[in-house]
Design brief:
single chain; mainly alpha; Growth Hormone, Chain: A; 15 helices; 82% helix; cell membrane
Amino acid sequence: MNTRRRSFAFAALAYAFAAVMVGTTLPTPLYALYAERMHFSVVTTTVIFAAYAVGVLGALLLFGGWSDAVGRRPVLLAGLAAAIASAVVFLIADDVALLLVGRLLSGLSAGLFTGTATAAVVEALPAAQQERAATVATIVNIGGLGIGPVLAGLLAEYVAHPLTMPFVVHIALASLAVAAVLAAPETSSRTGRIGVQRLAVPAEVRGVFVTASTAAFAGFAVTGLFAAIAPSFVSEVVGVDNHAVAGAIAGSIFLASAVAQLIGRRIVAATAVAWGCAILVLAMVILAVALTFSSLPGIIVAALVAGAGQGISFSRGLAAVVEQVPAGRRGEVSSTYFVVAYVAISLPVVGVGVAAQAWGLRTAGVSFAAAVAVLASVCLAAILIQRSRAAD
C-alpha cells in the first residue's frame, strides 16, 4: 500500500470511528424531551441508558474477535448498519420499548466498532507511525463520545424538530462513513478464529487487576451518571432548562477524559491510576457541593475533573494489567476489564434512578458522589499499600 493510499485509509477509518461514537451519546440531552412526551421518570431514563451497555457487552463477548477472522471491513460495516438502524428506531420511537431497542442497537454498534476500528486505524499506517495512529484512535473514540451530546443539545435547543434532526444528521454522518469504509482497503490478515471471547484473569495479575478494575468501575460509574442524568441535574436541581447546556456538560466529561488520556499516557501506570483515583475523589466532593447548592458552574467543574480522573485511571489501569500478562492472554484479560467498565456504566446509574424516586434527585446524586468517593479512596489506599510492599 503506497503512502497516499495509507493516508486516505487512515483518515477514512478515523472519520468512520468518530461518526459511530457520536451516535452512541447523541440521545443524552434528549431524554428529558422523551420523558416529557412519554411520561416516564428518571429511573426509566437510566434503564434506557443502561440498555446501551447491554449491547456493548453482547457485541464484545460474541463478536470481539471476529474481525481477526473475517476482516475489519465486514465488522465495521455491520457496526455502521447497527448505528443507522439505531438512529432510524429513534426517529420512529413512540414508546419506551422502542427507545430500549434503539439504545441496544447503539450499544451493539459501539461494541462492534471500538476494538475493530482501533485496530484498523492503527494498521492503516506503517509500523513506525502506529503509536501516533493509536493516539488518534483514542482521540476520535472519546472525542466522538463527547461531541454526540453537544451536537444533539445544540440541535434540540436551536433547530426545529428536536427529536428528529439529531438522528437525521447522524444517519447522514453514518452513511458517509459507510462510503469511507468501503473505499478504505482491508487491513487485517484474517488469521484469527471466530468464537466467543473468553474472560479470565491469570492469578499472577489478580492483585493489580482488582485495583485497576476498581478504579475503572468508579470512573465509568461517574461517566454513566453524567451521560444519563446530567440533563436532569441541570433542569431539576439547578433549574436551567437549556438542552445545549445539558449536552455540553455531558460531553465535557468525555472530552476531558480524552485530554487526560493523552497527557497521562507517559506516566507510570500504577502512579497514574493512583492519581486518577485521587482526582475522582476531588470531583465527587465538588459534585456533592454543587448539587447541594444548585450550582451550575460546580457541576461543570465536577464533570471536567471527573473526566480527567476517569481518563487517567482507565487507560493507564488497562496498561498496568496487560503489560504483566503474556501476549496470548491479553485479549481475554482486556475483555474482562472492559466488562467491568461497562457493568459500571449501567448498573450504578440505574441505582441512582431508583434512589431518585425514593429520595429525590439531589439526595440521590449526593449519595452517589459519596459512594464513588469512598470506592476511589479505597482503591487509592490499596495502590499505595501495594507500592509500599513492593518497595520493601
